Amino acid sequence: MEVAYFLEHIDEKRAGVRSTWRFGSAGRAAESMLPFDPRVRPTLQAVSRTLARWALLTRDRHPDHARPPASPARLAQWLAEHTEWMAHEEWAHDAFSGFADAHDRLKRLFDNPPEREAIGTCGAVFDDDTTCTELLAADKGATTHRCPRCGAEHDVRSRRDEMIDQAADFTVTVAESVRMLRTTDRQHVDARLVRALIRHVPIAPATVRVEVDIKGRRRPVDAYRLGAIRDALDLMEYDRDTQRAVRRVMRGVRDTDPATLNARG
């Protein structure tokens, strides 16, 4: 049953971070932020109710069957093993319609991208000195977001910058850094710009990974502290000399700074 497969991977849709480690990598795994999908919870609740309903009826009619498992993914697999028996029951049409609806709900969840992105937990302090722990998910393109639990107003860009700050010590490849930095308002960042900054500043690799491409070839890839790349971008934004130097590197002009000449490209 494809429903079971979807349910096995439901936490990957719910999560706000994922590992970018690949088999054969050296050093610690990097993590990159993913959009938080607020559709997961209501979808999982609806699917779980459907599965539980027909599992209870199956167990009630045949108490000799093995006890239904608690995990939604395992429960879907358990039901799949009893579909041949269900097909002869008077309520088979309703059950199979419910399973089809559960499948369609999960397929829509996995096929369509979320419309909101995580910006961390609220963190507002209440009068009793407790802290609001609501997970915030802002609409794409929104500049502000109000916490649905306590009503605190948050600046979306500031919250995304805070998430990058918290990930400053993660080691990332050039491609990973671009994906992460673009979750903030740095949409202009691309791999060419990051490589030019790495050469000019210079930024030394924090570690080296061994990655395997789709043809099975292994190659070493430098990984850098995300915070170092972010700081270099901030410097470039305000320092004209850095802007000019980085543009020269991007145009292929040799950098004459001795420190840069020793940097790995």
Structural class: alpha+beta
N-to-C series of helices and strands: HHEEHHHHEEEEHEHHEEHHH
CA-based gyration radius: 25 Å
Instruction: Domain count, please report it.
Output: 2
Strand order of the largest sheet: 7-9-8
Distance between the termini: 48 Å
Mean pLDDT: 78
Low-confidence region ranges = 15-35, 255-265
Per DSSP, what share of the residues sits in E-state strands of 2 or more residues?
5-15%
Summary?
This protein has about 260 residues and is an alpha+beta fold.
Description:
The protein has 265 residues and is α+β, with helices and mostly antiparallel strands. The protein has 2 domains: 96 residues, no CATH class; 92 residues, no CATH class. It contains 12 helices and 9 strands. The strands form 4 sheets. The protein has a 3-stranded antiparallel beta sheet. A hairpin with a 5-residue loop joins strand 8 and strand 9. It is elongated. The chain starts with a helix and ends with a helix. 25% of the residues are buried.
